[in-house]
Amino acid sequence: MMMAYLALAAILFAIGIFGVLTRRNAIGILMSLELMFNAVNINLVTFNKFIAPEGLTGQIFAIFVVVVAAAEAVVGLAIVLLLYRNWKGVDIDNINIMKW
Amino acid sequence: MMENFGTSLGLFWEFIKANPIFCLLAFITILSALYVVTLRNIFHCAIFLVLALFGVAGIYILLGAEFLAAVQVLIYVGAVSILMIFAIMLTAHLASKRISQNNEQTGIAIFASAGFLMVSLGSFAYSIWRVQTTELPENNTLEIGKLLMTDFVLPFEVVSIVLLAAMIGAIVLARREKS
Amino acid sequence: MVDFPILTYTIFIPLIGAAVVMFLPKERLNAVRWTSLFFSFVPMLLTFWITWDYFFNFSGTADFYYTEGPVSWIAPINVYYHLGVDGISVPMLFLTGLLSFLSILSSFNIVNRVKEYFVFFLLLEAGMLGVFCALDFFLFYVFWEVMLVPMYFLIGVWGGPRKEYAAIKFFLYTLFGSIFMLVAILILYFGSEPSTLSIPELINSAPTFLTHGMQLLCFAFFFVGFAIKVPVWPFHTWLPDAHVEAPTAVSVILAGVLLKMGTYGMLRISWPMFPDAVKFFSIPIAILGLIAIIYGALVSMAQKDLKKLVAYSSVSHMGYCMLALGAFTSVTAITGCMFQMISHGLITGALFLLVGVLYDRAHTREIAAFGGIGAKLPVYTGLMVLFSMASLGLPGMSGFVSEFMVFVGSFTSGIVWFKLITALAVLGVVLTAGYMLRMVQRVFLGEFNTAKWGGLTEINAREVITVAPLAVLTIAIGFFPAPLSNMMKATIENLVQLIAR
Amino acid sequence: MLETAYLIPVYPLFAFTVIIFFTRWNEKLSSAISIGAILIGLVHSVGVLLALISRHGLPYEVSVPFIQHPKILLEVGMWIDPLTAVMLVVVAIVSSCVQVYSLGYMHGDPRWSRYFSYLSLFTFSMLGLVISNNFFMIFMFWELVGLTSYLLIGFWFEKKTASDAGKKAFITNRIGDFGFIIGIILLFAYAGTANYQEVFAKVSAGAISPGMLTAIGILLFCGAVGKSAQFPLHVWLPDAMEGPTPVSALIHAATMVAAGVYMVARGMTVFAGSAEASTVIAVIGLITSFMAATIALTQVDIKRVLAYSTCSQLGYMIMALGLYGVDYAHHHHSVGYYAGTFHLMTHAFFKALLFLGAGSVIHAVHTNDIFEMGGLRKKMNITSITFLIACLSISGIPPFSGFFSKDEIVVASSTHPFFFVGTLLIAFMTAFYMFRLYFLTFEGSPRNQHKYDHAHESPTSMTLPLIVLGFLSIFAGWTGLPFEWFGLTGFSHFVYHGELAEHHPSYLLMAISVVVGGSGILFSYLIYKRKAWSSEAIKAKVLPIQKFLFNKWYIDELYEATIIQPTLTLARKLWWFDASVIDGMVNFAGWFTVKWADAKELFDKYIIDGAVNGIGHVCMAGSFFLRFIQTGKVQFYALVIIVTSVAVVLYKVTPQGAIIYLVLALIVGGVGLLSRLARPERAETD
Amino acid sequence: MPNYNLSLIIPEVFLFLWALFIFSYDLGTKRKNADSIGYLSMLGLGITAILLAYYHGGITFKNMFTSDSLALFFKIIFLGAAFMAIGSSFGLASQKIKNHRGEYYGLILISTVGTMFLASANELISLYIALELVTIPLFVLAAYYKDDKASVESGLKYMIVGAFSSAILLYGISILYGLTGTTDITLMKLHLSIVFLSYGKIGPALLIAMMMVIAGIGFKLALAPFHMWAPDVYQGAPTPITAYLSVGSKAAGVIAFARIMAGGLFAFADDVMKPLDWGMIVAIMAAAAMIIGNITALMQSNIKRMLAYSSIAQIGYLMIGMLTVTEIGMASVAFYMFIYLFANMGAFAVATIYSDKTGSDNISGYASLSKSSPLLAAAMAIFLLSLAGIPPLAGFAAKYMVFAAGVQAGYTWLVILGLLTAVVSLYYYANVIKVMYFTPHAEVGEKLHPPVAAGIVLAVGVAGIIFFGVFPNSILKFAFGTAKVFGFF
After folding, report:
1. Tell me, what's the ipTM?
2. Model pTM?
């Protein structure tokens, strides 16, 4: 049974990775990141249930992750706004002044 | 080979029959997650993100983490997703754009994430997991509260600093300068 | 053993001098010059005293004297501050002290960024003196590297037209060499039990704990480091550039001292520490030396630039050292190597000084541009001819003694191939005569072009003073080599026995 | 006297130092010091000679260590035996004569003082060479005389020819010394010492294998070949005539060039130890002698004629010594040794005389070309008479000194038919060209009236030495009389090698040699005085030969073509090699990178201006390409992270799998990138 | 409520409160004060250091806060980095960020608080959160020039890659949690050994976990191939922030890496990861870092970008020490980081001063610096030569230690590679010196007058480099002391 959860998490994580790698919209990337964090959380909770049920470390960790993810999302969105102001758009592809 | 496939299919069916709720949730989650990363209209993506997050919340409940599920709904669905949608609104007029939202890396990205999936599932299958039979404590929300105030008080405090920093930072960045 | 740490003073007085000069006002050129002269004069006296004292008191034995320390410097990695000199470092100290002083004296005509120039020069001197005193690998390596930076600046800031290229080339080449040395040092450090960086201890213990292969490896690593400094034949390309672009005084130091560090390092470290490797590599080394001798001579024969000619001549001359080093069994050869190092230091140093004198006046070093200068500048010509003769190994000058001893030594070293190699190497003497006389003739003899060089002025007193000591020493060693050889005798015999292990 | 003999070289050295450092500005004083020093030296050396005679030639040796080492003992010291003593006196006499002569000859020369200082330096070196007691020391002075000869030949260095000649002399000698030093080193290696006596002891004890002895002998002889201008290294001597004539007289006639002969005589035990070496020596001597004589027949420059005659005479002596060696190796005694050394002495005197006379002539008519002279006898009495004496002497006409020594050489060669013939032939030619010279110069009618008119006898300072030497040219030979008088044994009983051997003069041989010499004189008299046959006609008859001889057998040209040019070319080649290949090997990689057209200015900016070497270039190229990995696309960075992580993990499971994975990743990624590039740029998102 | 020894976290708490004070002070004084606020922040750091001297040594919050010598050592580094970063910020604080000085300094301080917690975190949850606390303020600071595209872009890139790798790190951590059922590193070690002893293997999951931890922390270290964000971000961010990124947050990564890998997992490397144990993985990554960093730096014309690549290479050198996991190795890591602090901060400080004055970061612009402001040029030369590892500057001692560790552990090939690349690195460092000193220049630019604080920073840097180069003894002893934490005897 645990494997099923892990598999779900892994799939979700993979999808997140795919999103981060491919979305051209900055906000899209942020969303994909959220997916990845959720996958991690599923992992944590699963392990908590199946491996270390005597404590609740996993769940608590998951809570912290949620909080941190939210914080990152906030900062990320703020930066996205700056993007929009400076580039009049949020297309990552156009944003490579600095290279080489 | 063929019957081999058949048997595995059969096992899968057995599994679905055994725990339909999980399968439903997993199906919803994965599908909407896929929509999130593939749809062209970013707004729709946000909607599906909400759906996916709900699915995950359901999973939490299955895993006996009610409090976490609540947190999930509150923070993600309630806060983050809304924030996202706000941002989408602010950067609005491309929401309607009907052009590809994926860049030239799509192919290799599929390749990479598929590789990741394969590797991780494979290695999970071949590793030692010391699965315990004992159940989680009944209504663990209380437990979590206790732990947050005792064992995990330090990260609890630190994470608050994180939030503070993020807040200040976001304000500083988002604020329009009057020049 | 001596109550006051004379070596430390010798090394660090130039450092203090550098500090003092740094705080002098930029505009007071003469103050800067004379201060730095003073701060190079004192160490020179100290080195003289050391030589004197060593000669009369300690020549007999092979141990280190004036030792200081070992005082723990970096305890966790067993680095000690450990100085000491023996029969092969004392002459080098003497040479360094003398040449540094003379070069600083000859640099009085520097006008651009005078202060920085002398600061760097004093730093350089400190580094060089340190290398010849250090008995701890870490210390040795530090001093070894410390010289690079001032040298880099001296070439790069005050050099000729292609100074940047020459400077960076010198810097990278030598650094490239020394990194291998560092690896070898680390291998030795961790190989030894208990781990030590003390050169004397490792000389005793290294052959015992290193496997044959390891010895070869370490030897090779050290060899690359030293060979680039010498420079041994295939690694020599940095030398012409550096010498030609560097200001006169710096070329003097380069030729007079820096090149010697390579051979000194071999004598101090590689040879006694890796006897098997020496036996293994002796013939290739000698062959490299042979190539250097012939090749350097021929190449300098083709030079059109006076300074380049001298530069390549030192490639050829250091070749004799390598040949002698190859003949590790022969005390005579090793002694000859030391003689060659010293006399080459004196002679080539003087030649560079003289070339500089001419360049200051004529602003060209094109050999073809001159002719018949002898009629106009007899004294200068006399000196130049004197040193050319010394350089081509004329008896009665140090060059001859050293070359002769190298030949005899390597010939009698008892290794069959050396008979042939030596015989071929003697050819170098002829070639040297060839290019030196060619140079002398085309620059000083023949028709004097009054219209072009009528304005040339005779070498002045300061310049004569810078060269005179070198001339005296060259001739003195040429006629009375016995004191010098006695000074090194015990050490070198001991060295040869160490190699024979 | 003997104990202080080491002072003999010291006097001129002292003179040299004083002049160079102190009295350079006072010409009179300088010359006075120089001459005074050498005169003292002369007296001293005569004293030494007498002392040695009084102790019946018992040698005297002292030595002090120079460099002392377990493996090597180099010492400086003096070894005085009859040969040394005689040479000392000869050198001292000739030197002092020449110096006095120079007072007149060099009159008004701007570098007067330096000239005399050089002469002193030379005298010092030559005396040192003679007096030294080991091979190492002889080599040192050997080189020193070479140096001074270089300085003196090039004394008028404004003349290109002069400086060229100096260089040529030095380098040619160096080539000889190349063998010499190897020989000495070999001696070190096998005898363990350089001291004459110890070496000889070892040799006679048979400590050195015959083959090695031959090698050593020949190598040592190389030195003599260089110094004594023997074939094939004789080419420098004629050019050396560019120097002032007194110098030629002193160095290139009487003393320095004799050093080679002296060395051979000195090391005779070594040479005599190997018949092969001795044969080589003898043959070389003969060849040189013959060749030089033939060349001398045709030369028109008075000094060159003399120069070649010097070569020839030296060859004579060498041959004699060589023959002695041959005989000695075959254990029967001959007079060669005595003949050689004896001729060395007599030749010193009359050849010096000849040169000084020639100098006096040149001084008078300001030309070297004998065809512009003639009839000078009336103008220059002393010169002509002394010159005639010298000519008779060299032609071996009794009772002149040359006769005695030459006769001994004839005797020595008489046991070797081939050499015998050669000897006589050379004797004939010698007489012929010497008198050709004499007649053309002093007899007949002046061929250049103008010069003739300005001609005049030289001042006393020049004639006096002529007279002195004239006397010596007559009487020096009489010491060779094979019987005692005034209780003094003859030269042969004073200077000898091995055990003293009696030998009786063969009057037949004397007669032969006299006849040969006389006939030579007769022929030249008929041709050049009587004009019985026109020399032009003869020349016309044998024109090719004449050309061949006149151009000195084309040997200089040969060397130029076969040795000098190739060396220089090789040097240039190597220089190119060094500048382009060795550096270039390192710089190679940079070469193709520069080919990148579009990146050209980038490279100019960053590489050409600062590249260190090839590794530098490679790195720069690497840098140039690595930068493009940094696409600036953040998602690409993320991609790299994930792909590498996965690859590493895969590597653990299946290494091949990891490789395949990476390769596929590259392919897929490349395809994606290309497809993107292929697609036309899509509309901007706003 | 178990009674935890709260005295241990006094320095962190104080610094946090001080940050709040800075925020409010700036608001309270209507943002008028350019310098005083900067000096106040530096003062706060100073006080924190003093407090640190009193309150350290001990464990509290169940291993979530381990105040051992290692933590102390790195906290000093962090404080120093923040100190120098703030000290060199005065110029831009007075010119470019008029409205948000308080937040600027405050966020640096908060990030520093995060690093300090991180240094003490011996438990994954606190470690992760501390890591985020370090990073999130830096996202903001990197994008701090809000109307400068470069700055915003660097912020964005940093944020995306940062979040991405933190997710990866989390995934790895979650697997570790799954394998052991705990997040306490020491317990984790224990559990892993139990599993290993009872089952004879642990399984590839641990491999994935390790790899993802390495990747996640490798991002902070800018260790190749996770380095690619670094040049862009460094170039765009405000220079002092770049400096802080290149030292402070790198050091954070270093200690996190040391705690997890060296402290926790290295014992199991061999059994799970043959033929490629994580030491070898890291070795390859270090090699890549040294090569890519040094080679690519050769052709950079922008000093910040050049220094970015150089810092990538520097981490490569540092990892040589790390991956040996020997006493001398871990000591060398600490020591290297300490020396690196002075050299790199100093170099960036000079770059800041220059760009504040001229607004340009082009190396070519440095021509004539040695004439116009010789001291500045000399300082720069010293910093660069130290980075290149030329004795007697401290950089050499540091490199020597690291390479010594490498040789001792048998990574000789890596050491030789490192030395060769060090030679390469000398080229671009020397290139700057060449421009400053050798290049003949038409006009001498006017003298640069650095702010006092920046002057202090430079002085500290130079002094540190020279002093610790000649007398590394004391600090090196300290470093060896820290190595004891990992339980070598």
Report:
1. 0.85
2. 0.84
